[in-house]
Design a protein that fits this description.
Strand content: 5-15%
Protein name: Fatty acyl-CoA reductase
Structural class: alpha/beta
EC number: 1.2.1.84
Pfam families: NAD_binding_4 (PF07993), Sterile (PF03015)
Catalytic activity: a long-chain fatty acyl-CoA + 2 NADPH + 2 H(+) = a long-chain primary fatty alcohol + 2 NADP(+) + CoA
GO molecular function, one term: alcohol-forming very long-chain fatty acyl-CoA reductase activity
């Protein structure tokens, strides 16, 4: 909250309703003892954090918080969403559709937003992935009654809810429920925004920052980043395409700049709704094959410098193969799925005899399983191609005299961006996560008892009798373990696993 002179201040309207414990639901005062370091820093800039819940009317805000927002806010940006393609439909529907409508309800209750500000909704360029070719910056007319569709989905629950959602997704031609819910939300916002100035921002596949605040920052692998993450640890990739389709990626600082500058341009345009793409396919296109080539080069260079600890590597190098035949790819994908299932079974059996090796094998096949799932989810976006028009972003860029808000997509150099993306993923996300997992595993209690004889006589065509003996030398205090494996060829007693 800032006064007319632009000075940051705090008054009674931002004080907490409670005694500082944080249970009162009000804005936390700068003097609150429960504030985090981040909140103290934000308060220094006149920024106050208010907790909300997308599952509740008016986001579950306290009456005091709600009145404060209504009196002071002029711009509302909704970028809350469930972005995982494989999230359950009820979660996607509740967050991407119902949640968006609750945010616009809050925005419409703010006089400043309706009159002199604007509401910004962050959608996705793939909200129109059921179309092909050139995608314009507009809401496409449809024979779909979106309000009726919303009502139908809202009145169903459980299996009926998911079955109806799948029928609608297939009927409208969306590759997954994520794009379906984002498309539905756009049209519902169009029908409900009234005269409130409204901007729908559609980014394509968001990657790490290009320059601002520094190069390569990212908090988690998403989209193209998931493929880079697989390759970073030596995993091979077989992609379902010839690699010549455009891979529409965009740095995250360009998306942030478009949201901020778009809101400034949209403010006060009462009665208008605009759509703006934030993408690269229109002015600086790059193919998936070129992106893969840049990623392989960056990963090879990084591995040669041992920046990723060898204990985390699952292969010596990244191998990318393209498979243009959809039938052949389907067969290979099914074979890989089967290998993952068998690998999990072997790891489970091995863990009872050789716990350390069993855990390592289990982690490997979990990784391979996730890789298969990633490729399955990204399949429609790698095989198909769209060109998202970005005339409005280009118009904003032409009047750009602020380097901290980049919009010049045509000047992006993709090769160094891929290199920075890889380094950022490893530094800020992948390696810290793996280190936490490793530390957690090392804390698990390990059995110090010698291995006891164990027999596997089911779940395999051949019965395996596995025994181990331990002998120790009192003088050297060394233990030797001998593993004997006997195979009984009487397959008639076995069970297929």
């Amino acid at each position: 909250l800032r006064d007319e002179e632009g000075e940051a201040h705090s008054d009674d309207s931002t004080a907490s309703d409670d005694d500082g414990s944080g249970d009162g639901g009000g804005c936390r005062s700068p003097q609150s003892s429960t504030q985090s370091d981040e909140e103290v820093l934000l308060n220094g800039f006149g920024i106050h954090v208010i907790e909300g819940d997308l599952q509740k009317e008016y986001l579950g805000l306290s009456e005091r918080d709600l009145e404060t927002l209504k009196a002071n806010v002029t711009v509302v940006v909704n970028c809350a969403a469930s972005i995982n393609f494989d999230d359950p439909f009820p979660q996607l529907f509740d967050q991407n559709v119902v949640g968006a409508l609750r945010v616009i309800q809050l925005a419409m209750s703010c006089e400043g937003v309706r009159s002199s500000g604007c509401f910004v909704h962050v959608s996705t360029a793939y909200a129109n992935s059921n179309r092909s070719g050139v995608i314009e910056e507009k809401l496409y007319e449809s024979d779909i009654d979106h309000e009726h569709t919303f009502s139908e989905l809202g009145r169903t629950t459980g299996e009926e809810h998911e079955r109806l959602a799948e029928q609608l997704r297939v009927r409208y031609g969306h590759p997954n429920h994520y794009t379906f819910t984002k498309c539905l939300a756009e049209h519902l916002i169009d029908s409900r925004h009234g005269d409130m100035p409204t901007l729908i921002v559609r980014p394509s596949i968001i990657g790490s920052t290009y320059k601002t605040p520094f190069q390569g920052w990212t908090y988690a692998p998403q989209g193209f980043g998931t493929l880079v993450a697989v390759g970073a640890f030596g995993g091979s990739l077989r992609l379902p395409s010839d690699g010549m389709a455009i891979g529409d990626v965009i740095p995250s600082d360009y998306v942030a700049s478009a949201i901020i500058k778009g809101a400034v341009a949209m403010a006060g345009r009462v009665g208008h709704l605009e759509v703006m793409h934030v993408a690269s396919s229109h002015t600086n296109p790059i193919t998936w094959n070129e992106l893969a080539r840049h990623a392989v080069k960056a990963i090879t260079q990084q591995n040669s410098q041992n920046r990723i600890p060898k204990k985390y590597m699952i292969g010596p190098r990244l191998v990318v193969k393209w498979c243009a035949s959809s039938k052949r790819y389907a067969v290979l994908h099914a074979m890989n799925d089967a290998a993952v299932v068998v690998g999990h079974s072997v790891a489970a059996r091995l863990s009872g005899v050789l716990p350390s090796q069993g855990r390592q094998l289990s982690k490997l096949f979990k990784f391979l399983g996730r890789r298969q799932n990633v490729l399955k989810l990204l399949h429609p976006f790698i095989c198909n191609q769209w060109t998202f028009k970005t005339d409005k972003m280009s118009q904003l860029a032409r009047g750009d005299d602020e380097p901290d808000f980049p919009l010049d997509v045509e000047n992006i150099d993709w090769e160094p961006w891929c290199k920075d993306y890889l380094e950022g993923l490893c530094r800020y996300s992948l390696i810290p996560t793996l280190e936490r997992i490793t530390a957690r595993d090392e804390e698990l209690p390990q059995s110090k008892q010698p291995l006891k004889p164990s027999t596997f006589d089911t779940m395999s065509p051949s019965r395996m009798s596995i025994a181990s003996t331990c002998t120790g030398s009192p003088s050297s205090n060394r233990t030797r373990r001998r593993l004997a494996v006997k195979t009984n060829q009487r397959r008639d007693r076995g069970v297929d696993g």
